Amino acid sequence: MTKVYPKVVNSPHVSSNEQSFFNESTTAGRNVDPVVLTVWKKSLLFNSDGFTVFDTNGDLVFRVDNYAAGNKSEVVLMDAAGHSLITVRKKRPSLTDTWLVYNGETMVNPRFSVTKHVNFLNGKSLARVSTTRSPNNNNNNKKNIVYEIEGSYAQRCVVIYDDKHHRVAEIKRKEAVGGVAFGGDVFRLVVQPEIDSAFAMALVILLDQMFGGGSRKFYT
Question: Which of 69, 75, 170, 191 is the S-S candidate for 35 at Cβ 3.0 to 4.6 Å?
Fold first, then answer.
């Protein structure tokens, strides 16, 4: 059986600090190389949907498998040990397909909102990520677009841009050694130093919620 995870020398550091993905983006003191992850759209739990994410050494770094026995409008991203890093929750009521992003499992003071973008004049745009706090934290209702997501999730060809239109993360199809192509359930997530890997993976989860389609969607 072809292995899901890649064989690449030098596994980059992947942060599992639940606070880190909310900090100011900076390359100071950080690995300047992109983090390359292999995402498998399958839970570690038997006969359950979810995600399992490996680094370049084949080590488990992130997992999603807890939603099966709880509120399906919430999805929790965990590290390899099962510690909660990020919770995404469907916003209700809402006229648009919008999800809120929380630190850990606090479920208070969401830090970001992600809204499915529906605009037939701009077919590339999939979703927009906004902050839910002003810089001085004086107005929790103020929103500023910080990331734009473009491409096709169905084709596993997605680019995440920051507010200066710099590429900070990409979803790409993955081919196994020998040219054997995996299906859409296995793909690469390439994360630049300007964005935390956990947050980038949370955006993958939300894209699957919005564009995954069929019974594979966690939320029903």
Answer: 191
Q: Cα–Cα distance between 216 and 27 in angstroms, integer?
A: 36
**pLDDT recorded at residue 95:** 78
Is residue 61 within 8 A of residue 16, CB to CB? The reply is yes
Q: Answer whether 203's CB lies under 8 Å from 129's CB.
A: yes
pLDDT tens sequence across 22-47: 544 444 445 589 999 999 998 887 66
Q: What pTM was estimated for this model as a whole?
A: 0.81
Question: Phi/psi at 179 (nearest 5 deg)?
Answer: 80, 10
What's the mean pLDDT in 202-215?
84
Contacts of 168 (CB under 8 A, 6+ apart): 147, 160, 161, 162, 191, 192, 194, 195, 200
CA–CA separation, 123 vs 152, rounded Å? 9
Residue 179 carries which side chain, given as an amino acid letter?
G
Helix (H) or strand (E) holding 198: helix 197-211
* Burial class of residue 91 in the structure, from the number of CB atoms within 10 Å of its CB (0-12 exposed, 13-18 middle, 19+ buried): middle
Nearest-angstrom CA–CA distance, 174 and 189:
9
Q: Dump pLDDT digits (tens) for 58-74.
A: 999 999 985 545 556 88
pLDDT band at residue 143 under the 50/70/90 scheme: low
- Give the position of tokens 């100011």: 24
Query: Residue-wise over 54-67: b if at least 16 C-beta within 10 A, else e?
Result: bbbeeeebbbbbbb
